[in-house]
Design brief:
This protein is α+β, with helices and mostly antiparallel strands and about 450 residues long. Helices cover about 45% and strands about 15% of the residues. It has 13 helices and ten strands. The chain has helices at about 1-20, 35-65, 80-110, 245-255, 260, 270-285, 305-315, 325-335, 340-350, 365-380, 400-410, 420-430, 435-445, and strands at about 115-120, 125-130, 165, 170-175, 180-185, 190-195, 200-205, 210-215, 220-225, 235-245. Strands 3-2-1-5-8 form a five-stranded mixed β-sheet, with no helix packed on it. Strands 4-10-9-6-7 form a five-stranded mixed β-sheet. The radius of gyration is 29 Å and the shape is elongated. The termini are far apart.
Amino acid sequence: MAVALALVILALGSVLFHFLSPWYFTPIASNWRAIDTTITITFWVTGFVFVALSLFMAWAVIRYRHRPGSHAEYQPENKKLEWWLLVLTAVGVAAMLAPGLVVWSQVVNVPQEAQVVEAVAQQWHWSYRLPGKDGKLGTTHARYVTDANPFGMNPTDAAGRDDILLTTPELRVPLGKPLKLLLRSKDVLHNFAIAEMRVKMDMVPGMVTYTWFTPIRTGSFDLLCEELCGVGHFAMRGRLVVDEPAAYAAWLEKQPTYAQLRDTPAANATIGKNFYAVCVACHGVNGEGNVALNAPKLAGQSAWYLERQLHLFKSGARGTHEKDTFGKMMAPMAATLADGSAVADVVAYIASLPDTRPASTIKGNADKGRARWATCAACHGAEGRGIAATNAPRLQGMNDWYMATQLKNFRDGVRGAHPQDIYGAQMGLVSGMLRDDAAVGDILAYINTR
């Protein structure tokens, strides 16, 4: 009797958990309600079978329990029962498969009017390419891929001149317009998944896969890689922002094309020297840094990284946290650079400064730091010289006291918390492995040996 009662409680408890549980579908934001419907049908079919079998087993346990003097009756076969089981099983399987086949036919047939967008995955970063006014994407090839041309754009293809290249993990799309995503991976297997849009598709190196959806409500939605792609997999996050058509058009109009980016005049270090006059007081004549003023060494740091940080300071994405005392000091200094050209010019001048290795100030256990460095090396490189493709700056030969401050800021949410500082948010996740100041000291001690 106890076994039968347990089976009944298990069946009824499972049903109650299904209906009362707070864990269910993420509220949908696309046209794919049919996907939810197929899953609901599967729940009903499998749920009915589960409850029926559980109750049947409970009845059988009671009906055929042991009684003194009773004997089992042997039946080698029962054609009627077998036919009933065959038909009911076939109906149940068909009820689950048929709706899925109907939905799949819709998934693989993209509307003709769908806007095409290319999403490119690379450890551990998302980037996107949108067609320009001609509505066509230019051709790409792996042989063209460089730090300056991360998409591998074909420079001789006129169709790509007006393509819009977005190296940020944030993609904006218009509300109510079908969107076809061409999915490309530059290194290993990735997976493009946005739960609210009900889209999830593998990205295979050497192939272009695709999926599509129509956003039905505005908002910001998390983009995740749901294929294990290395040690930084957990930090490979992006964002889809759905805007009203007018707001999207205004945003799109401000984005530079591939031709505009390629034809941008080279930065002028001579002009940059004049801008650097403001920086000298803190960072030093040769960009060597000044610990007394909490101004880090700039000389030798990657130009792309310095440009990004200056833009973050200018936009308010960095240096606005109430606990970021020194970041607040830097923000008004960055504001003296009027535009992107001024930023590029001053960075070009910094690149001309002599790169002198600073003295070490941090004490720690380098052997312990070596074990932790394996995670850092995946992005920053084995020697810590930085890798532009993974958006990881140089650490080797930079101020250890400054890196200690920034690692603690990342860990404590002082830096990387702003929604526009997406790479800072990634670093905030990774820095969580440094649980205390001793761990920070150990890893910096190891970096100082490189």
